[in-house]
Amino acid sequence: MVHIPENLGKEPLPLPASNLKYSEKKKNIIGIAGTAKNTGKTTTLNCLLKEAAQRNLLVAVTGIGFDGEELDNVTLLPKPRVIVYRNSIVTTSEHCLDISTATVEILHRTGIYTSLGEVLIMRVLIAGLIVIAGPSKKKELQIVIETMAQYNVDCIFVDGSLNRISPMSVVQSIIFSTGASRTTDIAVLSSEMHALEYLLQLPITPLDYIPNSDTIEVPLLLEVGDVEDLKVKYLRGNKTLFISKLISTIALERLTTHCLNSSIQIQNLIFSDPFALLINENIVQTYKNISELIKSNITVTYSSAPKLACITANPFFPQFIGNKYFSQSIDKEELVNKLQLVCSTPIFNTQETDSSIIFDTCIN
């Protein structure tokens, strides 16, 4: 059910006066991303939202793209839906309200549109389920976050996934959910999360400190030919290479090869943020390339990066038997133990860990 104020037309409502600036609240903007479908991302988000409600904290939640469907659209197995509580601020697309059970009051029309209608900012009047479908572009997500922050919320949660992770560069900390739905091979999961943790924890070089005279900036390196052009046209004595958007796996491999054999000579390689690397499917290969560059005395940094708050591990996976999927699990203790061996980041099974411990770890 939706309550629409009488003065709410198609024009945005004025925002409330805020006692805190957006920058002061930025430390409480938490992204939650899954390495695959059914890895427990929504369970993690629900755990955090419930704990915040029990502590009487005012939270806001939005997402990147579409999530929150009742059934997985591939396996047709039940999925946990996002549960929102009274007074929470929720941002989603207008048509999602038709399949949500929470009663909300529309506070603000953003003028941003998705395939599911205009993105609206709302207050929850009666707790219930909500389908989250937020903006998929970084600039639009930034607008939504800045707007929600003006309602004096204590923290903001952004729901996302690894395959649509680029806009996550606006968050201050991030939680990754992984598990058997990604792969039932625990050794592979451990290697991947070790690589992901390594890539997220590289140092920061603020853009103000990048020497412009010695720096060449390129937005994208996607093909092998892009690296060859870079080698021929630009890198003649430039000490710093700044990649402002993203680099593909094959381009990074070629760049690494040229740097190792000294056909490209740079001292510093700077990416805008870790998501320029994490968007690649083969995270382990990306990790290997970056570690090889660092071992060859090339400094690899980001201009900004969120903190990796924790990793949640889900032993569940859907198994196809006959003509439909069934819920199965791998060894939950082995999964958590193996991840703890290779990662310094806290590892939790959200089904068994006290929600207050997870919350305190993430809201630090």
Features:
single chain, 364 residues, alpha/beta, Rossmann fold, 2 domains, ten-stranded mixed β-sheet, four-stranded parallel β-sheet, 10 helices, 20 strands, 30% strand, globular, disordered N terminus
SSE topology:
Elements: E1 2-3, H1 22-25, E2 29-34, H2 41-54, E3 59-63, E4 65-67, E5 82-84, E6 89-93, E7 103-114, E8 117-126, E9 128-130, E10 132-134, H3 138-149, E11 155-161, E12 173-179, H4 186-200, E13 215-221, H5 224-233, E14 240-247, H6 249-260, E15 268-271, H7 275-278, H8 283-295, E16 299-302, E17 307-314, E18 316-321, E19 324-329, H9 332-342, E20 347-348, H10 355-362
Parallel strand pairs: 1-7, 2-11, 2-12, 3-6, 3-11, 12-17, 13-14, 14-15, 15-16, 17-20
Antiparallel strand pairs: 4-10, 5-9, 6-8, 7-8, 18-19
Helix pairs in contact: 2-10, 4-8, 4-9, 5-6, 6-8
Structural notes for this entry:
Helix content is 28%, strand content 30%. The protein has 364 residues and is α/β, with parallel strands linked by helices. The chain has 2 domains: 2-8 and 25-201 and 306-362, Rossmann fold (3-Layer(aba) Sandwich); 207-302. Helix 5 (224-233) runs parallel beside helix 6 (249-260).
> How would you name the oligomeric state of the polypeptide chains in this document?
single chain
Q: Biggest sheet: strands, sense, closure?
A: 10 strands, mixed
- The outline comes out as globular
- Annotated CATH architecture of the largest domain: 3-Layer(aba) Sandwich
CATH superfamily of the largest domain: P-loop containing nucleotide triphosphate hydrolases
Q: What's the number of extended β-strand segments?
A: 20
| Low-pLDDT residue spans | 3-27, 70-79
Computed Rg: 22 Å
